Amino acid sequence: MIDQGTPADATPARVAAAVRGGVDWIQVRERALEGAALLALVDAVATAARDAARGRPLRVLVNRRLDVALAAGVDGIHLGHDAVPPSVARRLLGPAALVGLSTHAASEALAAREVDYLQLAPIFAPLSKPAERPALGLAALAAAAAGPLPVLAQGGIDARGAAAARAAGAAGVAVTGAIWLAPDPFAAAARLREALDR
Fold this sequence. Notes:
- The chain has one domain: TIM Barrel.
- The protein has a 7-stranded parallel β-sheet with strand order 1-2-3-4-5-6-7.
- It has 9 helices and 7 strands.
- The relative contact order is 0.14.
- The two termini are 24 Å apart.
- Helix 2 (35-53) links the parallel strand 1 and strand 2.
- Helix 1 runs parallel beside helix 2 (35-53), helix 2 (35-53) packs across helix 3 (66-72) and helix 7 (159-167) packs parallel to helix 9 (185-197).
- By secondary structure, it is an alpha/beta fold.
- 43% of the residues lie in helices and 15% in strands.
């Protein structure tokens, strides 16, 4: 995810470093930018990430902004409670696009439909921002992961937390602080990748 505190001109280089370290999905989440500025950032991030992947499978998604996802031709969209319904996103993006949804309780995750994956947050206290909700913990993650959709654990995930999340049934993890706030995004991503692959 893209953090508002990072200068836009540094973002593609940091994303490329993270991809070289093992990141395989990028979600551009930058609510401070609108229209052309957000589209330019998504284009720059997608180009840098795909170049760094060197043919390895990589997905680039946009948070909330269906118009930007369409214009940029990225791999999909991640929706929240304030975005278009999943059925609309699917119809406009097509059957091959990834459509994801943010959830904040196991019951929300188990009730979700019409998407390809879910993010459940916060599993632990966030690393990148003050906590807005109490941490759900691994038991809630395990309950959500027992449902029909793949669940990505989000919130306070570091390498140790990534391994615990996978053990609880998560299909993967979504992180901001563990990589974005690290002095070396390549090394931070490599630690997470090793924990997940182990």
